[in-house]
Amino acid sequence: MLSNTFRALQSPAAAARVAALSTAKRGMSISSLTQFEGKHFISIDQLSNDELRGLLDLSKKYRDTYGKGSSVNPVEAPKPLTGQSVSMIFQKRSTRTRVSTETGMNLLGGQSLFLGPSDIQLGVNESMRDTALVLSRFNSLVLARVFAHDDILELSKYATVPVINALSDLHHPLQTLADLMALEDHFGNLKGKTLAWVGDGNNVLHDLMLGGAKLGMNIRIATPAGYDANSGVLETTKQLAAENGTADVFETTVASEAVKGSDVVVTDTWVSMGQEDEYEQRVKEFDGYQVNSALMAQANDGAVFLHCLPRHPEEVSDEVFYSEQSLVFPEAENRMWTVMAVMAAQLGKL
To answer: What is the DSSP string of 53-94?
Structure first.
């Protein structure tokens, strides 16, 4: 990413050539998504490097086209998903996932249907297989936000249309696309940057370390004893790190050790939905893991902070959360651009 200072020193002709090259490069990466048509989106490691690059660049293209800063009239903007629809199954509530998907699908000309716990009891009144087969006859896509990862796997096994994992207990790939997009907007090329995770070894961490490794980032993970990342996902991360020239995948139980020398500090809720009865125990065992100014001071100059929301004060102090270091709200906005890219790519409507 060129700095504003450098851009200011360029002649208009040189700046135009750079912009044209950037646009051409983005177009080439987006064209690689032709191989993604019809595929399920279950976890980041299932993407090829080209598909990951293409989804990030398509997300940026959609933001440029449909975003509030765009000169394009939203009414006159392209509607590539006209006539398409997505069923959204929600076992777990979410502000960002529902609003981003419904709004994004509308911007692209399609329709979305919300199916909450009172609308559909996944695998209870009707088998997962039958649900998948029925929704596939009505809709172009099925998006599901569930508790058990096995539910996503079963849906994708029987659905005859592409399935999107909008969160399971093992993976949260849509969040990772939004995070990586926010980081690329801030830093440009992420290769060689160091990402530190401080908190629970959960689904958000799993896809973020997979995606970071694919882009050549160093990964440093601090989790309390007993809250480690899934061993299988961690092993896959190390394999991807070796393949993509990542220098380091480091694990510790000490938050400051992970944050030292990092460019990005990330945390998440300590108590996920369904774990409410563990609240007191978890808060006690996560003592010392709050991301505050003292912890951020251990990171590199210019380090930034991410949190996927909703956020609680014990996880991150106000002075960090609302600071200039925080990319939390651009990160949240990116949830819309990235889900738009995934849906369009799965349907071959780029």
So the answer is: HHHHHHHHHHHHHHSTT-SS-TTTS--TTTT-EEEEEESS--
Residue 308 is a catalytic residue: yes
What is the value of pTM for the model shown?
Answer: 0.92
The distance between the two most distant Cα atoms of the chain, rounded to a whole number of Å, is 66
**From 308, 336, 340, 343, active-site residue:** 308
pLDDT per 10-residue tile (average), the chain, 350 residues: 48 53 81 96 98 98 94 90 98 93 97 92 83 97 97 97 98 98 98 97 98 97 97 98 91 98 96 74 93 98 97 96 98 98 97
Domains, the chain, with CATH or none: 24-172+335-346 (3.40.50.1370), 175-272+281-332 (3.40.50.1370)
Q: Contact at 8 Å (CB) between 80 and 341?
A: no
**Residue 309 in contact with residue 334, Cβ under 8 Å?**
no
Distance CA 307, CA 286 (A): 16
Return the half-sphere exposure (C-beta side, CA atoms, 13 A cut-off) of residue 43.
21
